[in-house]
Amino acid sequence: MNKSTVLVIDDEAPIQKLLQIVLESHDFKVIQAMNGQEGLTLAASHLPDVILLDLGLPDMSGQDVLLQLKNWYTKSVIMLSVQNSESDIVQALDKGATDYLAKPFRTGELIARIRSAIRRNASDQMTAQWTFKNLKIDLSARVVWKNESILKLTQTEFNLLVFLAKNEGRVLTHQQLLKEIWGVGSQTETQYLRVFVGTLRKKIEDNPNTPIHLITENGVGYRFQA
Description:
There is one protein chain. Helix 2 packs parallel to helix 3 and helix 6 crosses helix 8. This protein is an alpha/beta fold. The protein has two domains: 118 residues, Rossmann fold; 96 residues, Orthogonal Bundle (Arc Repressor Mutant, subunit A). Helices cover 41% and strands 23% of the residues. The longest helix is centred in the middle third of the chain and has 16 residues.
């Protein structure tokens, strides 16, 4: 079996060394770039399965690298950032980044995010049914089961759940969700979204106060976890 390739674009040598050790120990092939221009060149020549892209680079911003990548690169880009760059994270996600990790990050979470991204790369086509632990979603019948019982969801709740589940493992910003479900012009109605997420949690979660499927990314958006 061919190894999945991960391109790391980060100018911090200790981070590069750590990521190389961790990724290679989990059977990934690792390519490394210390600046944005080198990263763009390596991305074009190697076509990696996943790109880990730091927001702060010496020659150009990670946002600019992302914009150039999204002109042609169709696979997953996971942003790396320091804890206090929340607005930059939201901006990057809205520009097409797949996910983000805040430094310092746990290596187990890193591997889980990369594997989730690779699964999404391989399953762009929608299947008739999805199963997530105790939840089952039938797209054609527009029916959701929890523990073999049919849930009574409104059309909006169903559409919201499907969009989140289709992007399983990926963080979706408030603006992305509002635009997808309620249309252009609704991107500022974050309180409206919060209400619908709350009602959806009450229906799909065993304990809405400690959700296992519909996870809040504080200040950013929501993530569906299988």
